[in-house]
């Protein structure tokens, strides 16, 4: 889906479910989540943006923070995981719709 395009109903439902989850990095690192969960669109490698390929990340630390996926990615380094590895962990936690 190109940036700015309206998500499909299925994609909107999926992102609502992702936004309701606990931050996957905080969960895996056994950290207390300090800010609200935001939906992060995976852009690892040459992946085209998709509303279905999203991660629940807390806004101030794991998403937009200096150690987050839009920063130096220290949390990913500590976990020894990439964004698609995190997606796998998220999918394991998602309950069937």
The total domain count is 1
At the fold tier of CATH, the topology name is Herpes Virus-1
Nearest-integer average pLDDT: 90
Oligomer: single chain
What Rg do the Cα atoms give?
13 Å
Q: Compute the number of strand runs.
A: 2
Instruction: Using the alpha-carbon principal axes, give the shape.
Output: globular
Q: Which residues sit in consecutive blocks of at least 5 with pLDDT less than 50?
A: none
CATH class group: Alpha Beta
CATH architecture: 2-Layer Sandwich
**Succession of helices and strands:** HHEEHHH
Q: How would you classify the helix and strand content by structural class?
A: alpha+beta
Please report which band the strand proportion falls in: under 5%, 5-15%, 15-25%, 25-35%, 35-45% or over 45%.
5-15%
Order of strands across the main sheet:
1-2
Estimate percent helicity: 40-55%
Model description:
With 97 residues, this protein is of the alpha+beta class. The protein has one domain (9-93): Herpes Virus-1. It is 40% helix and 10% strand. The protein contains five helices and two strands. The chain has a two-stranded antiparallel ribbon with strand order 1-2. The two termini are 22 Å apart.
